[in-house]
Amino acid sequence: MFSNYLIGLREGLEAALIVAILVAYLVKTSNGHALARLWMGVGVAIALSVALGLGLTFVSDELSESAAEAFAGITSLIAVGLITWMIFWMAVNARHIRAHLHGELDRALATSTVAVAVVAFFAVIREGLETAIFLWAGIRASGEAGSAVGGALLGLLTAVALGFLMYRGAVRLNLTALFTWTGALLVLVAGGILRYAVHEFQELGWLPGEDNVAFDLTSTFPADGVVATFVRGLLSLSPKMTWLEVAVWLAYVIPTLVAFFWVIRRRDAAKPASAGQPAEAATH
Fold first, then answer.
1. Taking a C-beta distance cutoff of 8 angstroms, is the pair 268, 241 a contact?
2. At what angle do helices 2-28 and 175-204 cross, to 10 degrees?
3. In this model, does residue 283 exceed pLDDT 70?
4. Coil, strand or helix: which one is 173?
5. Which of 29, 174, 239, 250 is the residue whose CA sits 20 to 30 A from 116?
6. What SS3 state is found at 198?
């Protein structure tokens, strides 16, 4: 549940901040008449994102068992790639998002209010499609559909609430620290999803080593027990893993975390002394 809550919170907060930046700029520049078009673009983006999530579920349910395993494994690999790219992209480009969105809105307003809807759509759709894929893969990897969906929805609702409160100036968050530590946690989540993909491919016979078990703690921590459920929900790991699963998890998590914090350190070293403004500065 926690891993999907984290995905929902992180992706939802990014989308909420984007929308808040767009809304605040339209209000600040006395272009409130374009807000309806903006919300139209946001709504279409959300609808398509939900449709993608439902589509992935429908396709998986209609496939044979082996085809469903292959589909889940391949989609999980795509999700890991997207998560990794998103984490590093945000670490490098977060400070430039507001200026970029303002420029896009200026160009759109010079054309028509319909163009504002297009800007809002493309600003939100990337986050929405990424979220749909991440959450679908995370739910599959955790194996706890009910709690995973609940965690994802709770994360999204938390993100919407925080976005609204920041827009209204009722709450101040250090977004730099928030995105840094949620990014690090998402690396662990992505490692678990990658581990799940390896597990699926081993069951299909696409990868070797299905019988080479590194550890089996199921007698100590039953698969449906509290501890196993917590670890699976937090990191998408299992109480029974093969050597290849362990090796792939370590080979992804360790260098990715090292590279992530190296990028963060270089970014902070190059940041002006006035940087690191509070959260609401991102929207006003």
1. no
2. 140
3. no
4. coil
5. 174
6. helix
Cβ-based burial of 111 (10 A; exposed 0-12, middle 13-18, buried ≥19): exposed
Other CB atoms within 10 Å distance of the CB of residue 35: 16
What is the average per-residue pLDDT within 82-110? Answer: 90
Phi then psi dihedrals of residue 180, to 5 deg: -65, -50
Q: Are 178 and 282 in contact (CB under 8 A)?
A: no
Per the structure, the complete domain to which residue 16 belongs is given by: 2-282
pLDDT at 239 over 90: no
Torsion sign (Cα): 56, 57, 60, 61:
negative
pLDDT in tens, 224-236: 666 666 666 666 6
Instruction: State how many domains the chain has.
Output: 1
Q: Is the pTM of this model over 0.70?
A: yes
Are the beta carbons of 17 and 96 closer than 8 angstroms? no
Stretch (H or E) spanning 184: helix 175-204
Strand 213-216 with 240-242, pairing: antiparallel
pLDDT confidence of residue 272: 61
For range 41-59, the mean pLDDT: 94
Cβ-Cβ contacts under 8 Å for 39 (sequence gap 6 or more): 120
Give 146: exposed, middle or buried? Use CB within 10 Å, 0-12, 13-18, 19+: exposed
What is the DSSP secondary-structure string of 249-283?
Answer: HHHHHHHHHHHHHHHHHHHHHHS-TT----GGGGT
Paired with 241 in beta bridges are 215
Residue 168 structure tokens: 């209204």
